[in-house]
Amino acid sequence: MILRYDGTTKIAEVAGGGVIQQPMTVDVYAREIAAGYGLNGHLYRVGKLVLYRISGVVNAAPTSGQLKETIPYGYRPNGTAYDMVLSEQGTGGNISIQSIQPDGKMTLTSIAGATAGSIYSGNSSWITNDEPVEGDKQ
């Protein structure tokens, strides 16, 4: 048996030349959140896979510590997830690490501080066992 996916249908070719077609549907969920220091977080969920993108211009110099913002239910990681957030500032850049706990709490570790007005961006992904939030369905 050979399985392939043509974008809308799973096709199984079986011995003897027969073809079985099975419609495939994948639900996609999305939500935008505040990610601390004026940054925006964009969460996308496909099945159990969560993709997280953080970006924006910081409104204050980031410091290390727990953020008041959290990752909402439906998108929280099974274990601690990490996001390397890069800033582009002047001729150089700096890095911060954002850790995301299974309860949704986020902690920022500022490895090299940035000033207000720095442009930050980062991406991460993880697996969740949370149930999807139907209101976020696209």
Strand content: over 45%
Which structural class do you get from the secondary structure elements? mainly beta
Number of strands: 11
Report the sheet with the most strands, covering strand number, pairing sense and barrel closure.
8 strands, antiparallel
Q: What integer value in Å does the Rg equal?
A: 19 Å
Based on Cα principal axes, name the global outline.
elongated
- Strand sequence of the main sheet, in spatial order? 4-5-6-11-8-9-10-7
Percent of residues in helices comes to: under 10%
In the predicted model, the low-confidence regions spanning at least 5 consecutive residues are none
The helix count comes to: 0
Mean pLDDT: 81
Termini gap:
33 Å
Series of H and E elements: EEEEEEEEEEE
Would you summarize the structure shown here?
The chain is mostly beta strands and 138 residues long. The protein has strands spanning 2-5, 9-13, 19-23, 28-34, 40-46, 49-57, 65-70, 81-89, 92-100, 105-110, 119-127. Helices cover 0% and strands 55% of the residues.
